[in-house]
TrEMBL record:
GO terms for biological process: cobalamin biosynthetic process. InterPro entries: Class_I_gatase-like (IPR029062), CobQ/CobB/MinD/ParA_Nub-bd_dom (IPR002586), CobQ_GATase1 (IPR033949), CobQ_N (IPR047045), CobQ_synth (IPR004459), GATase_3 (IPR011698), P-loop_NTPase (IPR027417). Signal peptide: none annotated. The gene is cobQ. The active site is at C336, H435. Pathway: Cofactor biosynthesis; adenosylcobalamin biosynthesis. Catalyzes amidations at positions B, D, E, and G on adenosylcobyrinic A,C-diamide. NH(2) groups are provided by glutamine, and one molecule of ATP is hydrogenolyzed for each amidation. Residues 11-230 form the CobQ/CobB/MinD/ParA nucleotide binding domain. This is Probable cobyric acid synthase. Pfam families: CbiA, GATase_3. Residues 260-442 form the CobB/CobQ-like glutamine amidotransferase domain. It comes from Methanolobus zinderi. HAMAP family: CobQ.
Length: 494
């Protein structure tokens, strides 16, 4: 357990975005938690997907996953700065779990010294409680144009003087050059703390790489700690890199149920991890606004970082008309911002779109939403299913769990989950503020049973991999492929 000694640290950096830093940290948190009390940490995260802690703070979903893998409760200290891109080069800045401001990149960097102090304070609080802090960088570590204002790679490395592991992605090509080049470009005070390389996403026999691994070690003096295989993850995606790769999930997989679910890929989509549980049991399509929607069995309008702007884009593209035509033929769900769009009107005082105005919604639910103040509701909740209708009739009275992250207040005459959400008279158009809805097994099964019966196909319930099993499976892969004895030596040498 933690004592008065300074907590040990380990920093995982990457040669680029989406090389596997988050997954590496998640696996290490699971493995190392057997010996240490471990906390994850990422000074600054830019992500479309966020999580609400028990005390109502908003952090990047990756740090919540890493904390759970370590067997500890996620807190705001684990991700003190979260940037949520809103488009037009602007991001909402979340500091210690609370909305701070909407800022452009240039304006954000003007306050970077203040952010340095925030992360120092967060680290101090984590050090007082944990034995080991496993830290994650962002993007590529050798962004030489950002060294003077970086807090997450070079900044974290300098503040902590932590030993560093550098991860490269072989699937993208050029992994040896990217590892070598990153080390060469890192400032000397950071480079000397680089203790190991890891190669990720390899498809094939690692023995083929041996000559290259030996040359890399000879050239840099840094050992290769292991080669991780390409791995089918069973934990939520972290950021925008993942949504770019989503087009149709499950195509050609005969083990999936023959149900077609279309998720509208809004330009400012957020928390698309809401739908990943459905990807295990149905054919899920992510449909761009200029695509033909077709005839899905279910269409979902997801959350968004700007409801009004995405509603206007939805209308301009004609996707709103495509969705309306499906009423009575398909189940229609709106989550968070998607829920607000399903209503009759949105009253914006100017906090969403910059000026006071009313915007007509899709008119599929009898609701009105008002954006009256720059105030976000962030809370974990448990609710009772109170709705009738063909989807929820067999689970009415059940409890579900979820979390809310939204601005705006919605009035409805007919709720779905306790005091939340709305449902139409047919029971097939549903809106809710609850993120994580489809993580509830009873909700997934009720929806799939309804969709399968309506389509006349069989529904085969999924063989559920629990969250704990998913973490253990990932840890087994990481532990079997990395030189964990060397990693323990690196940690203990501090």
């Amino acid at each position: 357990m933690a004592d008065n000694k300074k907590a040990k640290k380990l920093l995982v950096l990457g040669t680029a975005s989406d090389v596997g830093k988050s997954i590496m940290v998640t696996g290490l948190c699971r493995i190392l938690s057997r010996k240490y009390k471990v906390a994850p940490f990422k000074a600054q995260n830019m992500s479309l997907n966020s999580w609400i802690t028990k005390d109502g703070k908003e952090i990047g979903i990756a740090q919540a996953i890493q904390a759970k893998a370590a067997g500890v409760e996620p807190t705001a200290e684990m991700n003190p700065v979260l940037l949520k891109p809103k488009g037009d080069r602007t991001s909402q800045v979340i500091v210690m779990g609370e909305p701070y401001a909407d800022k452009s990149a240039g304006n954000y960097y003007d306050s970077i010294e203040e952010m340095h102090e925030v992360l120092r304070g967060a680290l101090e609080r984590l050090e007082s409680e944990y034995d080991l802090i496993v830290m994650e960088g962002a993007g590529g570590a050798a962004e030489i144009n950002l060294y003077d204002r970086d807090i997450v790679n070079v900044g974290t490395a300098r503040i902590t003087e932590a030993p560093i592991i550098l991860v490269g992605d072989i699937e993208s090509g050029g992994v040896f050059a990217s590892l070598y080049g990153t080390k060469a470009l890192l400032p000397e005070d950071i480079s000397r703390n680089l203790k190991g390389f890891v190669i990720n996403k390899f498809r094939g026999d690692p023995a083929i790489l041996e000559p290259g691994l030996k040359q890399l070690e000879d050239l840099t003096g840094v050992p290769v700690l292991g080669v991780l295989p390409y791995y089918n993850l069973k934990i939520p995606s972290e950021d925008s890199m993942a949504i770019r790769k989503k087009k149709k999930i499950g195509a050609g997989d005969e083990q999936l149920n023959d149900v077609d679910i279309a998720v509208i890929r809004l330009p400012r989509i957020s928390n698309f991890t809401d739908f990943e549980p459905l990807e295990r049991i149905a054919h899920v399509r992510y449909v761009d606004l200029d695509d033909h929607l077709g005839n899905p069995d279910c269409v979902i309008i997801p959350g968004t970082k700007n409801t009004v702007s995405d509603l206007l884009d939805l209308k301009e593209s004609g996707m709103d008309a495509q969705i309306r035509k499906l009423k009575g033929r398909a189940a229609i769900f709106g989550i968070c911002g998607g829920y607000q769009m399903l209503g009759k009107v949105i009253h914006d005082s100017g906090i969403e779109n910059g000026e006071e105005a009313d915007y007509e919604g899709l008119g599929l639910l009898d609701i009105e939403t008002t954006f009256g103040e720059y105030k976000k509701r962030t809370i974990q909740v448990q609710k009772e299913i109170i709705a009738d209708g063909p989807i929820f009739k067999n689970i009415k009275g059940d409890e579900i769990w979820g979390y809310e992250i939204h601005m705006g207040d919605t009035k409805t005459p007919r709720t779905v989950f306790g005091d939340d959400g709305s449902i139409d008279e047919s029971g097939t158009v549903v809106g809710t503020y609850l993120h994580g809805l489809f993580e509830n097994e009873n909700i997934r099964h009720a929806l799939m049973i309804y969709l399968a019966e309506k389509k006349g196909v069989e529904y085969h319930p999924e063989a559920v991999t629990t969250e704990e099993e998913a973490y253990d499976e990932l840890a087994e892969v990481v532990e079997s492929c990395l030189d964990m004895n060397k990693i323990y030596e690196i940690i203990e040498a501090q």
